[in-house]
Amino acid sequence: MALIKSISGIRGTIGGTPGKSLTPIDVVKFTTAYGAWVASQGTNKKIVIGRDGRISGGMVRDLVVATLQGIGCDVVDLGLSTTPTVEMAVKMENAGGGIILTASHNPKQWNALKLLNHEGEFLNAAEGQWILDYAEKTEPTYAEIDNIGTQRNDDTYIQKHIDIILAHPLVDVAAIKAMNYSVVLDSVNSTGTISVPPLLRALGVNDITVINEEVTGHFAHNPEPLPENLVDLCNAVKEKKATLGIAVDPDVDRLCFVCEDGSLFGEEYTLVAVADYILSNKKGNTVSNLSSTRALQDVTEKHGGKYFPSAVGEVNVVKKMKENNAVIGGEGNGGIIVPELHYGRDALIGIALFLTHLAKKGLSVKALRNTYPNYFISKNKIDLPEGLNVKAIFEEIKKKYAAQPINTEDGLRIDFDKDWVHLRTSNTEPIIRVYSESKDEASANNVAQTIMTAIKELMAVTA
Prior knowledge:
Elements: E1 3-6, E2 9-13, H1 24-40, E3 46-51, H2 57-70, E4 74-80, H3 83-92, E5 97-101, E6 110-116, H4 125-137, E7 151-153, H5 157-166, H6 173-178, E8 182-186, H7 192-202, E9 207-211, H8 231-240, E10 244-248, E11 255-258, H9 268-281, E12 285-289, H10 295-302, E13 307-310, H11 314-323, E14 326-331, E15 335-337, H12 347-361, H13 365-369, E16 376-383, H14 390-400, E17 406-407, E18 412-415, E19 420-425, E20 431-438, H15 441-462
Parallel strand pairs: 3-4, 3-5, 4-7, 8-9, 8-10, 12-13, 12-14
Antiparallel strand pairs: 1-2, 2-6, 5-6, 10-11, 14-15, 16-20, 17-18, 18-19, 19-20
Helix pairs in contact: 1-2, 1-4, 5-7, 9-10, 9-12, 14-15
GO molecular function: magnesium ion binding; phosphoglucosamine mutase activity; phosphomannomutase activity
Domain Alpha-D-phosphohexomutase C-terminal: 394-452
Protein name: Phosphoglucosamine mutase
């Protein structure tokens, strides 16, 4: 059982003991605090909510809706939806905020409250801390009978989202339709099923095969779109002789592609390819986080722009994008942020721009991938026992590699001659993420394993 309270939201496993996992009491407690924060902003008390296809989604939704009404907020419930759709709906509804009920890439036992401001963007550190402090320190006051909030259901926003994507000046439906693409989609038993196929059809793609289609929340595999979880998709692409495969996570803000031969395009290269297309039409700067491939920097500089790294986390990427007027940004986990739509990761606009790029290049997916510089990122994680002093372990690692260039903006990043490794605790799971990159796959793995061995030895000493 786990409960992670962070500035970006509340995430935990369903069931168990209040305060140690995501129980109904915790849902009510933190929803109350969020509703109080929205009311304190003086905008309005309308809040948009939406959920992915998780088993616990309906239960959590009912708790959230009733709690928001109880504190005097009016709720617009999108029902089954996607994270980017909810983000856009907040602005379109002129709402005071939004809550997305999703644990993103986490397994089925997890759920979360992902909290948005009136711009449909994730809360900053101060706003998130306000909510955490309120939840722990304030005795809430709920609305009396004449002031309880209302509820309205609205299932039209996925189509509105698609319509806005089709109107984007760099999305070329005619070019895509002319290529007669065939696509295999892995929607991992969640809301990719109700959002991606309608988008593809609107883009002129009619040959669509969906695997793991039924929206049950019983994920057919671990829902994080990593290579080991996409074997069935890769095999289906080869079997169907499809043009490409598409994988999204349960809330459709992460995106990766499979080449026609069943090989992975690489989730790190989702952003690289889309950025290449945008920068070829619109000059400007780019942003990605410290754990993302340096290939984005290469592509950005090729087009005459400047690349800026940020701390990990969507809110940090967005902040850096605004500061540097970036025309495209995102994260190496397949997250694409296109500011003309909204400042949030969005797999749907990513699909439309990627397919347009592919069509205009006239290449196969594999050939397109081969146009980009080859870097290899090894992505690993170490489970954290409860109560471990991670800061002390990072300090010891820092001392061990004191001769190397070190960045402590977000965890610990160590640069070597041609390689780098980035260590940071996750905001969403009790783990240390260990990412390393090199021109050579074996070297990237070796760097990661060397650091992981050192961490585990320190963990054993401090246990």
